[in-house]
Amino acid sequence: MLKFTRCLVCTLLLAPLLSAQSALARPDVTFKVFQFPADKIPRIDGNADDWAIVPNSYAIGTDQLMDTERGKGMNHDPKNLDVKVKVGWVKGLNRLYFLYEAYDNYWDFSRSDLHNDIFEVVVDGDLSGGPLIDIFHRDVWTPEAVGQERSVIDPRVTQQDAHWSSHGVHAQNYHIFTPPGDKDWAMAWGCAQYIKRFPYANAAYNYNFKPGESGKLILEFWITPFDYSPCDGPQRAVESLLTENKLIGLSWAVLDYDDVNSNTKDGFWDLSHKHTMFGNASQLVGFRLMPLEPQFRKAIQAKFSYTVADMDRRLVAFKDESDGTITSWKWDFGDGTTSSEQNPIHPYKTGRDYTTILEVDGPAGKSRFVNVWGVSVK
Known about the structure:
By secondary structure, the chain is mainly β. The chain folds into 2 domains: 2-289, Immunoglobulin-like; 298-376, Immunoglobulins (Immunoglobulin-like), CATH 2.60.40. It has helices spanning 2-19, 159-166, and strands at 25-35, 60-61, 66-67, 81-89, 96-104, 118-124, 172-177, 186-188, 201-207, 215-223, 226-228, 238-239, 247-256, 267-270, 285-289, 304-310, 315-320, 328-332, 338-339, 345-347, 353-362, 365-376. The strands form 4 sheets. Strands 1, 2, 3, 4, 5, 6, 7, 8, 9, 10, 13, 14 and 15 form a 13-stranded mixed sheet that branches. Strands 19-18-21-22 form a 4-stranded antiparallel sheet, with no helix packed on it. Strand 4 and strand 5 (96-104) form a beta hairpin.
């Protein structure tokens, strides 16, 4: 019976996500995620020097944020709070890197609860959209049922089942304490607490102020977005695959407290301009994973990858991944045969390790890439 209940809950909660098309807030805006070269990956040490190579066009400031809780709109006061965020990625790593720089006239982090200045980040790596918190599953859990033991719509679904089945599974929410004081660096919504721990996340701070004082804070961190992050641990989790030009859902809010004795925030400064973005991935903002900036790219460079399409027939599919403008390709498959196709599919007659070579030509010249014993077929 327990197994049936779990399957039922998964079906009720995930079916609308699979059937509905994803939406994003602020469709007129697409923010950029900077691609770090593989030899310039930022070190997570709280030092912003590694980010000096990121153009200012990637910076997102307080002027993009709207107070969606207290009705201040976009009328922020930089003397009270001023933030700048840059987001980066590295081709081949499913990580999002963040540099958060903020000035606050009153840093609130002395208490041991959620009353803390917070940088709240929500990410949806595959644009699955939809609610990621139980109370926003309106088709299963109505407002009248919140706080009750069972759903009004389907009494077989307990709130506990809804919580453990949906919280942070297909999109993730990080309450990042700025700074944390003696708390953990972040509170991750849901049961998949591994998402905020190494090797799925890492963070470092740099600041010199005490609770209640003003000053500047630097927060450097990276997180791993997940298409599926279940409660029972990372062994079944599926990381979001980050690739060039991919669009992902991402947003954040800055929760600013200016009075340690009051639970009222001085602002909920939100990038998506939708207050409930913290629990609904369809209200995030579009971010594009950008290619390398021109200064980090070679004019022409031969590169390729391959997959074994059919091991029984030793059929290998090669994919050209060369940089620059390419006008011709020459493949040497290592078995005495060649090809001039851009993306050839080649059958090997015998099983062994082969050295494959790709030579490319273009307006910028020639380039050659050799993969020694890199193709293995049996």
